[in-house]
Design brief:
This protein has 277 residues and is an alpha/beta fold. Helix content is 42%, strand content 17%. The strands form two sheets. The chain has an eight-stranded parallel beta barrel, surrounded by four helices. Strands 8-9 form a two-stranded antiparallel sheet.
């Protein structure tokens, strides 16, 4: 069967982008509409939903508290959950001296295996940023227990980081490529002022998950094509790499909800088609 969006191994959407903007934050688990989102995604030819695990009512989040219901929605809709964005760990970074985030992570890893999710997106930004040497040291100490936890699974870690191309490349050189890769967020990189080609030259082969987003330089999210992200070039580099990981629309959202997503899906499809035969 022909794929509607022929980029990566699976093309999908970040949970919540199929619903109106939440008053709990720009990216938050959509408690009222999460089940409907599977059908909305299927209707648009999307192949997966990237799950959001945030701090709000974390033990009740269905990926942990109602795994069987999640599996049922996957089966009924045909839309997979291939990745989980563990935003909880952005507020509660992994630390060998703090057992709390590890308890949550163990539960999440078990649930990911039950629903067939293969990529754990680990945000190393905001409170979990690695820019300070003390934070980078904390993260490096957590690598061994994290590796041990995942050793008997097929789950890979995709690091979302605000480090520059050289620093991130050097960090990845010291990590097992079978487990650790990069979550490349096109919009976040543009906002930080990083040069796309320098990023791909430094660690392109380690990119395991892609987030599609547009942002202004040092600014917030805007609809695709209206900011400073060179999305056309990013698609071109990913195609040249024959990228085989999931590609997720984490694009601009507002009170229009699904209407805003539909406009951006159309724009992205035009860009993709201009670069593929």
């Amino acid at each position: 069967m022909d794929r509607k969006f022929g980029l990566g191994s699976s093309f999908g959407v970040m949970q919540g982008r199929l619903s109106p903007q939440s008053d709990r934050g720009y990216q938050a688990f959509p408690w009222e509409t999460w089940q409907e989102e599977f059908d909305f995604a299927a209707d648009r030819g999307l192949e997966h939903i990237e799950w959001v695990l945030d701090s709000w009512r974390i033990n009740e989040n269905p990926i942990i508290g109602a795994t069987a219901t999640v599996r049922k929605r996957i089966e009924d809709s045909g839309v997979r959950v291939v990745s989980v964005c563990a935003d909880y760990l952005m507020d509660n970074p992994l630390d060998v001296d703090d057992n709390t985030p590890w308890v949550v992570l163990r539960s999440l890893v078990e649930s990911m295996q039950e629903v067939g999710a293969e990529w754990l997106v680990l945000p190393c930004v905001d409170h979990a940023s690695l820019r300070k040497s003390s934070s980078l040291d904390r993260f490096k100490r957590a690598i061994e227990p994290l590796t041990e936890m995942l050793a008997s699974t097929s789950i890979q870690v995709s690091l979302e980081s605000d480090l520059g191309p050289v620093q991130l490349g050097e960090l990845l050189d010291g990590l097992d490529s079978k487990i650790f890769g990069v979550n490349y967020d096109i919009g976040n990189s543009a906002s930080l002022g990083y040069v796309l080609d320098e990023e791909f030259d430094s660690y392109g082969r380690r990119i395991s998950v892609v987030h599609i987003k547009d942002r202004y330089l040092h600014g917030g999210s805007v609809p695709l094509g209206q900011g400073d992200a060179d999305i056309h070039r990013a698609i071109e580099r990913l195609l040249n790499l024959e990228f085989t990981g999931p590609v997720t629309m984490q694009a601009f959202r507002d009170s229009d909800g699904i209407t805003a997503l539909d406009r951006q899906l159309s724009w992205f499809q035009d860009q993709l088609e201009s670069l593929t035969p």
